[in-house]
Amino acid sequence: MRILKLINHIPISGPARREPADGTESDMRVSLGFEPAWFHKRCGINFSEKWHVDPFYRQRSLVKMKKELCKNFPLVSYWNEDFKDDLSTISGCYGAYVIPKVFGFPLIYEKDRWPEIDKNKRKLSVKEVEKINTDDILENTFVEEIFKQMDIIRNQWGKIHGYLNWQGVLNNAFILRGEDIFTDFYDRPAFAHHFFTLLSEVMIRLALKVQKKQRESGFYINHFCVSNCTVNMVSPQIYREFLLPYDKKISESGFERFGMHTCNWNVTPYLDEIKKLPKIGYLDMGIMSDMIKVKKMFPEARRAVMYSPVRLQEESLDEIKKDMEKIYKELSPCDIVMADIQATTSDKRVNELLQICRNLESRKDKK
Question: Does pTM top 0.85 for this prediction?
């Protein structure tokens, strides 16, 4: 089976996603992303509900945001003011909570933050989950709202650019069911499988439908990257029994490319299970992972390290350089995922990171 790679992609002020690799990626490619407060402070962008539901307002704000990025970070090639497609986009809409919104969970919006789940919303009970019908869920008013936005973008600008954030089955289950999902593994295993079956079907069917409409508009997208940010909250054995079957189901559901995001955690204990998944074209991890082992086990995947925005801001430049040298030596070619850069982090420090990675790449060129 030919594995098609994905690279990390951070939409302008959206949670990190993935996009197809084209083979021209550098050995220490840095994928930069800034928290909404960065853009609110610099450009006066208001990330309240209007930003997420109004494609015209979002497009106008993205023009300002990209201009600010291009001005301050000239070493970054993927922000180009002449490229307009990523301004008329669904990227970033509803943050990381598209699927919870599909299930009727309300969001709280802030002017300088990504949306969050309303903490007053009661989590789903066992009986409520058992009553849910997939067809009904996929025909609700929120799903209609997504496609209405896509129609506006297509009619106004042509291509429907962007990557909605589908998360993974455990991430979504944790949001919808709360901490009870972790006891469900032991107390209600059949229910846990029922819930994950329901979630995976909703995720797959909606993603396929959204991406089909995007392809018809001229924007080619045909991939899925599961977000398993909560995987370190369960054992490898629990992952094998309760989560692996649904990650496998998603990877085999007609998407050309498939990847896994495990966030800034130690992926090492889960590698033997992840290896069982077909066509892994992307895998990220924290720097504490056994990166040498990852590279050996996943030679065909695009690998990535999620680097801490706090460490970027507070650590000495020498320590950051040591981190990058370790990553380069043990994992490259790879991505450095520098997401959630804080509004208090200086542009100088961000550009220093970019230069460090460029210098490491130049070592290969000189060999």
Answer: yes
